[in-house]
Here is the input.
Amino acid sequence: MDIICHEGSKQFHLFNDSCSYIIGILPNGEPGQLYFGKRVHDREDYGYLVNYVGRAMFVGKSDDESFSLEANRREYPSFGTGDYRQSAFSLLFGDGSHVSALKFDSFKIFDGKPKLNGLPAVYAEEEGEAKTLELTLKDELKGIRAVLLYTIFRDYPVITRSVRFVNEGRESVTIDRAMSLCLDLPDHDYEWMQFSGAWAREKRPITKQLDEGTVLVESLRGHSSANHNPFVILKRKNTDEFKGEAIGAALVYSGNFLTSAEVDTYGSLRLMTGINPSYFSWNLEEGEEFQTPEAILIRSEEGLNGLSQNLHRLYRKRLSRGIWKEKERPILLNNWEATQMDFDEASILKIAAKGRDAGVELFVLDDGWFGARNDDRAGLGDWFENREKLPGGIKGLSDKIHDMGLKFGLWFEPEMVNPDSDLFRKHPEWALSTPGREMSLGRHQLVLDLSRQDVLDYLYERMHEIISEGRIDYVKWDMNRTISECFSNATPAKEQGKVYHRYMLGVYRLYERLIGDFPDLLFESCASGGSRFDAGMLYYAPQTWGSDDTDAVERLKIQYGTSYGYPISSIGAHVSEVPNQQTGRICSIANRANVAYFGTFGYEMDLNKLSDEEFEEIKVQIEFMKKYRSLIQGGDFYRLLSPFEGNYCSWMVVSEDKKKAIFAFYRILSEPNPPHKRIRLKGLDPDRLYSIGQEEHYGSELMEIGIEAAEIPQPVWVNPQGDFVSEVFVLEG
Ligand code: GLA
Here is the structure.
């Protein structure tokens, strides 16, 4: 891994064992993208990759009509000077003009990776594992400096990017658009994969062939959303899970985003991701700076699984922080689906005790423990224990749970307030709302203005007190509605365009403060399930509740879709009661666990309601998970058969040393007399003899010949088992 600057040709070559990224200074003085792809030789001059083509209707800056911005690949393109694709940034100057000219000024290359002030970002830990290029561009006329940051990693096929604007001029300037990443590619022969859905059906992979025009996903909800995820993949047509080229782009950000791929009519492709420019404007006074969030660019030649595995590793090791990032996650029991808000201390202790008997390690008290919170119409914002339900308060309950030998976790939804709450009655101005306009409600609640320091201070003080006094080991940080009527009562008119982003910075600051005070606390983020499941959140909370949909069949899809962009250790997955509260479906307790194992694992039900037989079964499940969770949460995950493509789903995880693996197979609907279907396993050591069930097979057999799916479990025509059957096999070699 290195970054080489060729002073003569003014070119920069960032490379590691797998990829090369080459930047050259174009004839107009701005940086151009010369190459991004598989590692190539370093050489002094790749200048032949600059396009000199004169075309009718092109405009250019000199009489040399052969150079035009429209025909070239640019690193951080502006608008208005001859390139009519979407720009990466847009500045509005005091005189009303918006044409800018950011030209190369200087550069720095250094070891490691700088932190981004107030923002989540991938980090480097050891010396020599990352190198950074800082390209400084200047607009001399207006005194604007833009610093483009590129970090390349030794151990990951990854380049991270972000941009910092500095106003060194004499007048205020407004940033109307500042994308984190722009990647111009020379051809558009790619399919675009996005991960879209809605509440309870998050992250379904959707594939589109790119063609002239623009494809985009975005959020304007104030959080990244279940609807579209800030992670996309570009893949070649013949790329599949196991082979072929794929490029991923992830934004390390949890608020409004825009990710787009524009194909121009000459066949080039422009991929961009960053803060959504709609309803964003950031005026920068003299001397002020603005830092964009970070974008991650990742590349694979080993298909989609290869891409996901590297991203998983990066997120586990160099995005998540703290003691929990690679630690086995506790098996938890959450009372939400068991009691909703109708509980008291005795009923909670009864549920927790049964959990303890089953082998659970952490009990989590969900919504309903504070203020007048007996249903979702009241109480949010009043972070004071409800002594009617919990006479000894959170501390009293927590002590009793700890005395049982369990850890204790607690639910918060800090960003929200119910109109029917003491907090709102005292501080109506703390809710985001537009003067004179009706406030829209979502789940009977309003969103607090986390762009305000006084709001953050109140939340910090309440959470800090409860967490420290209550000896809390885990916090579920929920966020259950989108933002509407976005306007901050504490912000002057010309800064209202900052509010969405400042809100996110506020969320990040609050997390950071609490993490600083309680470094051992495990956070699980949540937004009605997976409505804020993004790389930004994983910097603070290493796990996210995958979905409010806990139905095992639906979870196959949700977890499969989520695995494209996020590690198994980040996916909150629980066994819940049946009939399932979201779908009404009844799946056996074995099937529910066989799906939930591939996540952080826990239970979301009253275990007292189980039959003795089922209770014995969950004891075995918990033992199994304790034994294998480090493999499941830390191994290489392979998607084998997609539940989006048929009646089956299959996936497996393989330990780093390839000595152990776990293979899972799921058949959704019962099939009489099913056709043959061989599943070929992946990632094993071909020469190792593995035991699997009652048999032994070499890795080569399992990978080349495979396992006959129609026979797992027992053929359905011999012993019909009805819909949804599944089997999890441990392979030991
Ligand atoms: C959201 C969460 C659930 C639960 C409820 C409580 O829907 O996703 O898991 O915590 O809120 O109100």
User: Anything to note?
Assistant: The pocket of alpha-D-galactopyranose is lined by residues 336, 366-367, 411, 478, 480, 526, 528-529, 545, 548 (CB under 6 Å). The first strand starts at residue 2 and ends at 6. DSSP finds twelve helices and 39 strands in the chain. Residues 191 and 209 are 4 Å apart (CA to CA).
